[in-house]
């Protein structure tokens, strides 16, 4: 179901993708738990779908949930948490809250610099996003 939802999203079939992603999230919450990595990935996928639909407030709510849960479960400097921080910063920028977005990306870059070697691919992409 998650793969089909992603296919729908890639085809621009936002409503179909949304319906399936919601089903996947609910099923994964029930079977795996709300803080399971697969559940969080599905929440992120729904957030991306909302972004494509211009539903940035709804996207932001999911981005915050995913980031906070990953921080708690995996730590602030885990690659998945850092990706979530990046996603939230992007959403904040879409919402016109550039100062918040820049502050979050600065934190993300700082954590990346502490976590990764200078040639790690996550570091240049985070620096680029901040720029």
Automatic annotation (TrEMBL):
PANTHER family: AAA+ ATPASE DOMAIN-CONTAINING PROTEIN-RELATED, ATP/GTP-BINDING PROTEIN-RELATED. Pfam families: TPR_10. The lineage of its organism: Eukaryota, Fungi, Dikarya, Ascomycota, Pezizomycotina. Signal peptide: none annotated. It comes from Decorospora gaudefroyi. This is Kinesin light chain. SUPFAM superfamilies: TPR-like. Gene3D superfamilies: Tetratricopeptide repeat domain.
């Amino acid at each position: 179901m998650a793969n089909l939802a992603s296919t729908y999203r890639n085809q621009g079939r936002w409503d179909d993708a949304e319906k399936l992603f919601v089903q996947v999230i609910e099923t994964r919450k029930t079977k795996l738990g709300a803080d399971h990595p697969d559940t969080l990935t599905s929440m992120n996928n729904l957030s991306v779908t909302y972004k494509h639909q211009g539903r940035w407030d709804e996207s932001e709510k999911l981005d915050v949930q995913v980031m906070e849960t990953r921080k708690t479960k995996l730590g602030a400097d885990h690659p998945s948490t850092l990706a979530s921080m990046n996603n939230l910063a992007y959403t904040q920028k879409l919402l016109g809250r550039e100062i918040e977005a820049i502050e979050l990306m600065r934190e993300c870059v700082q954590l990346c610099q502490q976590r990764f070697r200078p040639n790690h691919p996550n570091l240049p992409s985070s620096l680029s996003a901040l720029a």
